[in-house]
Amino acid sequence: MKISVIIAAYNAEKWIADAIDDLRGQTHKDLEIILVDDGSTDKTADICRQKAESDDRIRVISQKNGGPSCARNRGLSAATGDYIGFMDADDRVDPEMYQFLAQTARRYKSDIAACNFEQEYGEIVPKAHHDSGGNVVHFIGRAACLASIESAEVKLGIVVWNKIFRRELIEGLRFPEGKHLLEDMTFVYAAADRASRVDYIDLSLYHYRYSPTGITKSIGAAEYLDPIESIAALIEWSEREAPECSKQLIERYLFWNQKACEAMLKNYDPVIFRAVKGNINRYKSRIRGLPLRIRVLVGAAGRSWLCYKCAGEMNALLKRAYRKGFTVKR
Fold first, then answer.
1. How far out from the chain centre does Cα 26 lie?
2. CATH code where residue 51 lies
3. Are residues 142 and 288 both part of a single domain?
4. SS (H, E, C) the chain
5. Which backbone phi and psi does 36 adopt, to 5 degrees?
6. Boundaries of domain holding 228
7. Which of 193, 209, 225 is the last residue in one of the domains?
8. Residue 30 has pLDDT above 80, yes or no
């Protein structure tokens, strides 16, 4: 079984070599590694080309900067594998990840095979060997496949990088270009809507590098409105077609409205806040189902800007203290 793995890379010279080497070192050897240099201005493209010289499974595509969705779409057009996966340029994967995903997909004829993942802070050290292939959780039928994305039972998530997708399943699907948030969600939901079987391995094989300076830290509050509306549309659809998804989608909707408020701590916009407050109060009764910290923040945003500002600034202080303490510990 051939798996195409797409890495969209922009100015990733600090991490890209490790990501490529993790793929080259996979115990599943039938890989096509597609590196899309998205107009990098550092040494990313040079590193990609150097790695390609010593491994004929690597294909390097260079393009003008168009954003991660554009780069991934370019990779999708070039991919030839039976299954297609994605990796972020600054993340790491265990050497057995694609072996386990391939075995699962082959055994169960999965439309989507996925694994658990870890969110990492600081240095990442992939696990060299897992004693077993882990437990596999099965989702069969369209409604179950859609519900699996927001399931509390497993850590499937709205991200693409812990999954492989059967090529025929995603034929013609593309990431929405020109957006900065939740592009993965749109793609994953569209794929799950086509799927009849999703199989999930309960092993943490993918390591996501948390960055306090990531894209969600630098965008403005207005840029959250588009994905918030996308989630609202999914909620309306799920209430009609897949009610199993509704609870988690509403909780995600509340969370991202709170993120829009977080972006306003440095640049308050009363018009956006009124819209966000209205969104939150639309599902006021669902706030109690959120984790405590998010529940406090969302509840404050549903009351007033002053309430949210106090809660949001305290949350920011706690997060900074946590990151500092974690860095010292490591």
1. 21
2. 3.90.550.10
3. no
4. CCEEEEEEECCCCCCHHHHHHHHHCCCCCCEEEEEEEECCCCCHHHHHHHHHHCCCCEEEEEECCCCHHHHHHHHHHHCCCCEEEEEECCCEECCCHHHHHHHHHHHHCCCEEEEEEEEECCCCCCCCCCCCCCCEEEEECHHHHHHHHCCCCCCCCCCCCCEEEECCCCCCCCCCCCCCCCHHHHHHHHHHHHCCEEEEEEEEEEEEECCCCCHHHCCCHHHHHHHHHHHHHHHHHHHHHCHHHHHHHHHHHHHHHHHHHHHCCCCCCHHHHHHHHHHHHHCHHHHHHCCHHHHHHHHHHCCCHHHHHHHHHHHHHHHHHHHHHHHHHC
5. -110, 105
6. 217-329
7. 209
8. yes
Q: How many CA atoms lie within 13 A of 240 on its CB side?
A: 5
Same domain, yes or no: 283 and 201: no
Q: Between 327 and 152, name the one with better pLDDT.
A: 152
Q: Which residue has the tokens 């630098």?
A: 218
Contact criterion met (CB below 8 Å) for 221 and 228 = no
Q: Which residues contact 119 (CB under 8 A, 6 or more apart)?
A: 208, 210
Q: Are 310 and 300 in contact (CB under 8 A)?
A: yes
Final residue of a structural domain among 176, 209, 242: 209
Residues 225 and 205 both lie in one domain? no
Say how many Å lie between the first and final Cα of the chain, rounded: 39
pLDDT digits (tens, 9 = 90+) for 135-191: 999 999 988 898 888 787 888 988 999 999 999 999 999 998 877 677 898 899 889
Assigned token pair, 17 = 């070599």
pTM: 0.82
Do residues 26 and 159 both lie within one domain?
yes
